[in-house]
Amino acid sequence: MAATDSISIFAEGTFDEQILELVHYLSRSVPEDGRQTYVQPFEDALATPEGQKPIEEDEERRRKVLTSVVEQVKGLGEGSDKEIEGFFNLLFSHFLTLFPLDAPETRSHLDSLLKTIVAAPDHTPTKYRILATLFNSIPRRSHLRYTVYQTLLEFASANDDLEHLGISQTEVDKWLSEWEISPEEKSGFLKLLVHSFAKANDAVTSFQYQLSYVRSLPSSSPVAQTAAIEAVASALRLPSYFDFDTLFRLDAVVAAKDHPLFSLLQIFLNEGLSQYSAWVSSHTDVLAKYELDSAQLERKIRLLTLATLGFQNMGRDIPYSAIATALQVDPSQVESWVIDGPFLLFLCLA
């Protein structure tokens, strides 16, 4: 949405007509013989006694009437997908016009409506459209955008539909710079992304948000150090992740220097297979706790050792015996490592 602050929703008719349209839709959930009784209080509230301002000129009255409508929303209503979507689009159009966006009452009403929408059975695609339209209708700096997208993200994650949102880290960074939310809320949103992508079995994307989550926390806090260690464990678990220097640039990771995973991270960055083997022999409990696969880690440290050996001897021939010794493999396996190792590292680091 580069050109405008938010998307406007246009509807025909006067305020009275549109409110009654909303109320008549809600009345479908009432037995037919009780519908007029249901509608009557709204008709009375919309009527203007002689000598008073018309409701079109009385914002407080309009807000009270709309509040009464909002309080009657108990589900998606009895209608087609198109009618359901039209109802909520019109309701939210008035909601965003009449309620102060930063008022606690507004947030309370919005939370209630969002819970009602996602909790209703069926009509999943329609719910996505309603929430997306609402998100795009809210001014981009508003806290309400955070609230709506958090609901959308939780709903998509619960329904295993995360890929349909098309979330990009660039977009997330932009939103977090725009939304008027607290640092704690920013961290909470990033943590939700971490868990959502992990649940979707997208460990790579989840890890990228883990790094952002760690950066968002005060580095000396216990929460940050716990998050930092979890990020280190994730990096070690990822078969194709070798950029360990990025982790060392995180203050929270450095602050966790007394943790055994920090010493393992140092081995992957600066040392080799012998040091790794020594570490494993005394930290089998740590491997189990953080679900680290020793065979996979051994493969990664061998690839890094091979890369280091190559850099140290650039332009020179390296005897197979030297490679076999560095990798701690049989000389007959050296050719396979020499052929596959650099190619695999290139793919992982590209």
From TrEMBL:
Protein name per Swiss-Prot or TrEMBL: Uncharacterized protein
GO cellular component: eukaryotic translation initiation factor 3 complex
GO terms (BP aspect): cytoplasmic translational initiation
Origin superkingdom: Eukaryota
